[in-house]
């Protein structure tokens, strides 16, 4: 295991990048703590796989350094980094049995036969293929082959890091849950540094100790699932995390209040927001629906009953706003206003969160 440091790291696929937009991965400085489980989360094309491939040594960055426990590994080949990587699509040896595929990394390191057998048997059980260990990989389904790839990544106990590049794409939904659980158990039992790339927020939030959210080649927030939910550092984080995502309202600030669509919204604290565009971010859980004259004018468009709660879709100044109401909550037929719980309001200037005065950013 190793502490992985990314120092002034950036990458462009262009030969002579001259502007920030030329970089697929914008400049990044970060320490990946030894033994923690991270998820790289973002939409397709945001730079997740580029960053993972730089860490693994499959790609040399345009600038900056990659250090393992303080040792510069920027130009070191993958084999010298002592990492295991599992890719989006399964890579297995069809002519080998499942057992031989799983044992392959251990045999390359000339481990004792009894230790190889022990590890292969244990990992075979973890991925649900104990009964198929003697079967040839040829002819297995795509999800079975991916389970072999996952198992081959997990079979070694001496790696500096385990890297997963959207490894559950071809796995059926039930098995996804089981394998995520097994990966969490593996991390708990052996304490490997794990980095897991995904565009699925459920995978990221259930797997990781810390989630690294990427947008347009930039890391916009690193935090625990709770931090990402309660205090999104960027409007993209608020939109991408949560179902439905965070609502955004253009606003004007004045003291401890804001004006949204002509209505006064109490914030409870003052904000020194400087930017071309100021917005309030409010998750659906903190939107209240009511009647009368207090609040922001709104019109209920539809109510979606999803079992444990209701998702209310409203129209506010020509755009859709979502609110979450309890399962037994009655939505008034004449509902015409929304208000917000002050503790659930975040303020943004040009998409970046502004801390209230007196609070550290």
UniProtKB/TrEMBL annotation:
GO cellular component, one term: ATP-binding cassette (ABC) transporter complex, substrate-binding subunit-containing
GO MF terms, alphabetically ordered: ABC-type ferric iron transporter activity; ATP binding; ATP hydrolysis activity
PROSITE patterns linked to this entry: ABC_TRANSPORTER_2
Keyword annotations from UniProtKB, A to Z: ATP-binding, Cell membrane, Membrane, Nucleotide-binding, Transport
UniProt keyword Membrane, yes or no: yes
Domain ABC transporter: 4-241
InterPro entries reported in the protein's UniProt record: AAA+_ATPase, ABC_transporter-like_ATP-bd, ABC_transpr_FbpC, ABC_transpr_MalK/UgpC-like, Mo/tungstate-bd_C_term_dom, NA-bd_OB-fold, OB_MalK-like, P-loop_NTPase
Highest taxon above the source species: Bacteria
Family according to the record: Belongs to the ABC transporter superfamily.
Full protein name: ABC transporter ATP-binding protein
UniProt source species: Roseivivax isoporae LMG 25204
